[in-house]
Amino acid sequence: MPMKISSKVLSNTDIHNRLSMETRSLQHLPRFPVGQNCQILYLEDEEGETWTFHLIIRKGTYQKPVLSAGWKKFVKKKNLQKGFKVEFFKERDEVTGQLKYKIKLKKPVFVFNKVLDYVPFRFSQS
Predict the structure, then answer these.
(1) What is the DSSP string of 8-73?
(2) What is the pLDDT of residues 56-77, one digit of tens each?
């Protein structure tokens, strides 16, 4: 059963630069090797494609996780926009027993210019 790690409504910075995640999500992400503040994180999207990102934490006491390298490529490929929501999950693979990390995308539904809800978003190239 997937466990939700974090979710975030995308800002302009998230779309154009990098994605900052909630600090509390760090406890559910792979541990960083001692003395390192960058590692590779593989995220599987809803189509089953695996994406490679650099997961970085700031040095010092405020260790906020950030997806950097690979993020802009993902945003462009998926045609993400400000206001979309990303959700992160982890689950144990039933066959291998390994932890897998997943990303789900949601698009806002507007009623009278207000966000009513978010619905699953799958980008398809025609």
Answers:
(1) EE--HHHHHT-EE--GGGGGGSPPPPTT--EEEEEEE-TTS-EEEEEEEE-SSS---EEE-TTHHH
(2) 887 777 778 889 899 999 999 9
